[in-house]
Amino acid sequence: MGFRVADEVARRLGATNWKSKDEALQAHAPSARAMLVKPLSYMNESGRPIAKIASWWKAAPADVLVIGDDLDLPFGRLRMRASGGSGGHNGLKSIIEYLGEDFPRLRIGIGRGRSDTIDHVLSSFTPEAEHELPVLIAVAADGVMLWLERGLTEAVQFVNSWRLPDVTVAPQDPTRAS
Predict the structure, then answer these.
(1) The model's pTM
(2) Which end of the chain is more exposed for a tag (fewer CB within 10 A), N or C?
């Protein structure tokens, strides 16, 4: 989910030239003074490339917005925070190891599903959930754009008050691998 939102933000900023460097795909958006990063390491090692790139750009942890999925949020819920723990998310654990806890994060709910956690995270979304994703991705990208343009407070207020209307779909199909 984080990569899908990053792709949408890159599209909006005109930063569509992704380059592979430092264990990540990177797209620079000079107009927004932003570097979009999609780590290519294993998820539980994503802190290493993020820290390396943040260091190169001399970005403080508070200037690094991490976007990812969250099993503990129902499908379609968004939550943005200024800082915090990992909530059991191995990717966040790795980033916290390198940056500490004081970086903003945007979590996108995918729900727990009925299958094993690993199978659930790696499985495809159901057709019904895929139908809802463009709206979810667009709103998450709106939150990122607000963060870039107006700061964390307004982005948090927007993201945390938004709700996907009438979510009645099963989030992921455990019989299909992504």
Answers:
(1) 0.85
(2) C
Give the domain CATH number at 139.
3.40.50.1470
Per-residue pLDDT of 74-128, as tens digits, reads 989 999 999 999 888 899 999 999 999 999 999 999 887 655 454 444 557 778 8
**pLDDT tens digit string along 3-44?**
999 999 999 999 989 999 999 999 999 888 999 999 999 888
β-sheet bridge partners, residue 37: 26
Cα distances from 76 to residues 27, 42, 60, 68, in angstroms, run 26, 25, 30, 13
Q: List, as own/partner pairs, every contact residues 45-49 make where C-beta atoms lie below 8 angstroms and the sequence separation is at least 24, other chains included.
A: 45/94, 46/91, 46/94, 46/95, 47/91, 47/93, 47/94, 47/95, 47/96, 47/97, 47/98, 47/99, 48/23, 48/94, 48/98, 49/22, 49/23, 49/24
At residue 177, φ and ψ (nearest 5 deg) are: -90, 150
